[in-house]
Queue: 2 jobs
Job 1
Amino acid sequence: MDTLFLLKPGELMLKGANRPFFMRVLRKNLSQALREVPHRLEDRHSRILVRVAEADAPRTADILRRFIGISGFSPALVSGKSLDDIEHTASLLVGSLLREWGTARYKIEARRADKSYPLDSYGIACELGERLGRRFPDLTVSMREPDFILHVEIRGEVFLYALAEEGERGLPVGVSGRGILLLSGGIDSPVAGYLMAKRGLRLDAVYYHSYPYTGREVRDKVQTLAGLLARRIGGLNLHIVPFTEIQVKIRERAPEDRTTLFSRASMMRIADMLAFRRNANSLITGESLSQVASQTPESLRFTGSFASLPVLRPLVGMDKERIIGIARAIGTYETSILPYDDCCVVFASRHPVIRPKFQEMKESFMGLGIEEDLRKALRAAERITIDG
Ligand code: ATP
Ligand code: MG
């Protein structure tokens, strides 16, 4: 027998005229996420139905649990339209729950999208309730505190389901276009990328690698993080940009207390150039207000001025504990805390400027004469495609 999953699309219900586009992206992402599970997708009015073989149900549920763009899903049974059919199918469902739980309180919520159906929602609930009550003495009705709700949806077919699981919510990845994530080996940037993917951005990630000052382990770590993120958001491209020459020139030519900000500014500029190449509409960082010297409002103004596209900083108002909570939930935390220094530790200012003066810093950066090096670094970038 097949197992059906009834999916509740998330926010896209709110989106009016864009709805067909959102649904198209959602379906495409679903097919991609389920590519290794033989399945069929069916549209049912405001729902999507995924039909898989019963043996594939557990791994399908695993995939749906972390799939971005649905607010929830339920394993469902399909029944014929007669009340006898509905009673029979409901008994299968209720019977299996009672075998597990012994007794249960429940209520029925019926919905009749097919208005030609002879009984109205209330009528269906009463009649079915009475029949189930006769069949299952261990089942009691509780309107206020049910252990489960038996949903009966009468459409072209009749769907019955009892247990709904929460989904990841968010907008389908891709409906907001593409963003460039500045991905370091730290805790914050993978979280930032994940949050923006949930707002519909498909991601390209860029990592600035300062070999041999930062070792091969850091690069591997970033690649692992990119892989973990890719699994959540349905794939991404990782660009690894050789950054050593730039760091060295900054160290040679800039006052020591400016090197951190100048290297951040360079990263921003390169990411902005990459965005145009990749047809992206925004940059994403893991910056959080005043977490470190390079993230004060004045510093953000300075580094942000090297991007022409909007710089999205979803963590800007979050404290570290909250960020760590999300990192744990998406499974990146354990990798992020592996103790390898990133380039910025090696080249960081010991006492960085905290409130950079904008004009003075801009001129000072121009004086470095590294514009061509920035372009050259981007040209030398290595691109790795990681499937979701
Ligand atoms: P994270 O935990 O994400 O590394 P952080 O708190 O360590 O952040 P910084 O090191 O100041 O903060 O970096 C701020 C942001 O700049 C990062 O979140 C990331 O978006 C970007 N960034 C820093 N270093 C790199 C790098 N080597 N490659 C790509 N992006 C970087
Ligand atoms: Mg960092």
Job 2
Amino acid sequence: MMTTTTRIGVMTSGGDAQGMNAAVRAVTRTALAHGAEVYAIRDGYSGMVAGGDQISPLNWDDVGGIIHRGGTIIGTARCMEFRERSGRLIAARNLIRKGISRLVIIGGDGSLTGANMFKSEWSSLVAELLETGQISAEQADENPDLHIVGLVGSIDNDMCGTDITIGADTALHRITEAVDAISSTAASHQRAFIVEVMGRNCGYLALMAGIATGADWVLIPENPPNGDNWEDRMCNIMLEGRKEGRRDSIVILSEGAIDRQGREITATRLQKAIEERMQEEVRITILGHVQRGGTPSAFDRNLSSLLGWSATNHILESQPGDETMMIGIENNRLVNKPLMQCVHETHQCNNAIRDQEFKEALNIRGENFKRNFRILRTLVRARPHEVGKNHQPRKIAILNCGGPAPGMNAGTRAAARLLIDQGHEVVGVKRGIKGLINDWTMPLDWMSCNGWAPIGGSVLGTSRRQPPRPELYSIAQTIDRHQFDGILIIGGIAGYKVAHQLNANRDNFPAFNIPIVCIPATIDNDLPGTELSIGADTALNNIMHAVDKIKQSAVASNRAFVVEVMGRRCGYLALLSGLATGAERIYTHEQGVTLAELNRDVQELIAAFERGKRLGLLVKSEDAHHIYTADFMRRVLQAESGDLFSVRTNVLGHLQQGGDPSPFDRTFATRLAAESVDKILELIETKADDNQLYIGLQRGDFKFSLIEDFQRVMDQQNARPKDQWWLALAPVVEALSKADPSIVDQN
Ligand code: ADP
């Protein structure tokens, strides 16, 4: 790609965010793999202004073993000098003297605004440096342009132009862990708590945490509560909730929340308001910097790795005159956007809040944000809305099928409440299809699924049964007996198959002629028509935490691990957990495993250990190959490595399916449930012919497809979708994990 060695600078700036290290690692390794050099600019713009050792080379191994660490190993700071032209002049001089005119800057909107200003001034800075003799004519000629690519590191998720920013998902993890913990003590004492979360002008963290934890009230800057008496309404809801059986009351307060008059809603103001009205002590927990801390989530590690990789490719190809771009993700795909446009829109939103133009602020946040807020409003109610006399109540069954997937309960709760709120009746079917066969059911009312959002596994119970023909009679009888108007199936492929079976037998069993919607829930992420399924994110985090610990156990010895993860013939968990844990090799059924490759991998690993490597990590999907199993790999490695290193196998097993659902799985399940509820009610009302569907997320949209066609999009032999979007990430994983190219070249 390049003729002379290009040097790029990488910098983290402004507030730190978990995942910044993964981005620095990805930038460094991608650049080195392209033959470029990488310099760390330490402590943000301060390092740029200070120069000297604050701008120093980064090598392949400098960024090894950092992916799991919070914060940023190259430091970050806020720098007043850089806000002045005089400071930027010194920064330009320092960069030019180091031969750096390509920068990847990871920071918030402030840092990126500064970056853009720096770029726009560059030629005048260079001219002045030349005029005042601070750089030579040659140096000026070599650095006519400054190239910058921005990545947004901000736990607040407050930047327009990207669906999510580096650190926001991890911050949500910290918040949900804290609120879950507070809920249990609050429930024990029947107490009210105010939990203040970060976010500056953006209510994203508060909103999503409210959905994920089942909080009782949420206050965000973009949509202040309506009316002068909102404190009365809020407290009434909490008091009514107590009467209905809720033992705790949790209010999530975004730090930037204001009322409709633009007055700040502080935690103490809120505390006073609740104490007066509820006549009880209210506790305040300000989560503060806990939200910035801790190990990055699997999502943040992977997001940051992808963004870093993409930013580096972009900066290496950047041409004079190119606009400064920001790289983000939209609808699950990497996107490049003009940086200043994104900064401008972000400021517009902040200004709209300041000017109390709340409708405008919500519009800028977008449709998903608005929809999530509407869903939250229903879920927090103490009781469902009253419905009119002419309303026709429907009866909907909800069941969980297949293996338990974390988030199923959040989906069941959301579906039940959203249906009940519209005056419908909901029946929970216990133990999946077995419950439908045996009529094991329970009525689900507003309070019966209270507190379900944080619970792992499946409260209703689940099963994988594929009913033989005689059992179809029993299923028809159960449906007839209850007079179900529709069925929601939250589950894995077993659920889809049952729905398909009912669909295929409609002529024989009229009872099967009712709307059915399947909602994807399996940790394997191998379902048709959806890019993601409920449970997969939790499983990835479970794997990642286990592998982090396994890696740590080997600090004192030279050791390689072969870690086997679930997923059957679908390599999603293997690839994405391999990326999140920095694995050297990842084996999936999709990519295949050959003896020649294994041989090459073994030789490369041995060479790396001979050069001083102390830890090796290979991740494989459980059914990557029927002969080259984890144990086979261990034996081959052990036989070849001799005394150089020992090899251990870890089959992670069911820990992957367990645990508290991640915030993403809870909110995703809630969203899928909301879309499915709307759809099933529409199918009932319109008496649609094509009324048995499955829902999926595709490129940011929720799409429904006919259950009778689901096998058409499946690779049936391998029980996975034919089209798997995440396979496109394999080259990135390979680029970041392979051995240091400079050392390989020497051998
Ligand atoms: P964040 O990047 O997280 O939004 P800040 O707003 O504090 O954090 O910005 C970080 C640093 O970026 C500042 O300390 C300053 O050095 C630089 N910066 C921010 N805004 C500007 C600006 N308008 N012009 C020049 N530099 C800026």
